[in-house]
Design goal:
Helix 2 runs parallel beside helix 3 and helix 2 (53-67) runs parallel beside helix 7. The protein has 2 domains: 1-30; 37-215, Rossmann fold (3-Layer(aba) Sandwich). The chain has a 7-stranded parallel sheet, sandwiched between helices. It has helices at 4-33, 53-67, 80-90, 121-130, 142-156, 170-187, 205-215, and strands at residues 39-43, 71-74, 95-100, 114-118, 132-137, 165-168, 200-202. It is an alpha/beta fold. Helix content is 50%, strand content 15%. The relative contact order is 0.14.
Length: 218
């Protein structure tokens, strides 16, 4: 029979060591990324194929921002993340991949010339926002939505300074934006009308770069 006190002590010991793992991930992140500022964090689906127009859009985003003097940070995976890393690397810029350990997850893409691996989502999220002067949101799924709404929440609640938050691909985002306006804002007053100004929806990567450069002075 297993001693309950032993189980509790073992759990406590593992939890204590987890604290050190968390600290070490923060330290590695801060030390590695200290030279990538200013950067844009680019999010999008890992399921996007190279033949998809979204992939080309991501590649253009990475290239144009790198050419404009920004580092490009992604989640380090395939699809839209690979596209943005690829564009940045091809332009000779700093192409950063922040990879996450998951039970069944894609391999890291080969276009990151700066790479970090994370065990904890929340530490990775800190790195995305800490060194970013803008978020570029390509079409994506739950993970992309998570980053989008977390950034909106942090800006709305003044936990971080406002920065450009740009959704690319009007056709993809139009129904979500309509729902936010109609239900969150107008019908139920869950957000203020001014909160709709926290993000911008565009179609062209060039317009996204121009919008960021208009606000961010290098």
């Amino acid at each position: 029979m297993v001693d309950k006190q032993y189980v509790i002590d073992e759990f406590s010991m593992n939890e204590s060591w987890r604290i050190f793992r968390i600290i070490s991930e923060f330290v590695d992140g801060f030390e590695t990324l200290s030279e990538v500022y200013p950067a844009v964090s680019v999010f999008g689906s890992s399921r996007v194929l190279e033949t998809d127009p979204v992939y080309e859009m991501g590649r253009q985003v990475g290239r144009l921002f790198a050419e404009a003097g920004f580092s490009v940070i992604t989640g380090g995976g395939p699809g839209a993340m690979e596209a943005a890393n690829r564009g940045a690397a091809e332009a000779g810029g700093k192409s950063v991949g922040l990879c996450i350990h998951l039970p069944k997850e894609q391999a890291a893409n080969p276009y990151s010339n700066i790479r970090l691996d994370f065990r904890y989502f929340f530490i990775r999220k800190v790195m995305f926002v800490k060194y970013a002067v803008a978020y570029i949101i390509l079409p994506g799924g739950f993970g992309t939505m998570d980053e989008l709404f977390e950034a909106l929440t942090l800006i709305q609640t003044s936990r971080i300074k406002p920065f450009p938050l740009i959704l690319l691909g009007k056709e993809y985002w139009k129904d979500l934006i309509s729902w936010i306006k109609k239900n969150m804002s107008m019908k139920h007053s869950m957000i203020d009308a001014k909160d709709l100004d926290l993000f911008l929806c565009l179609d062209e990567p060039e317009a996204a770069v121009a919008a960021v450069k208009k606000i961010v002075i290098l």
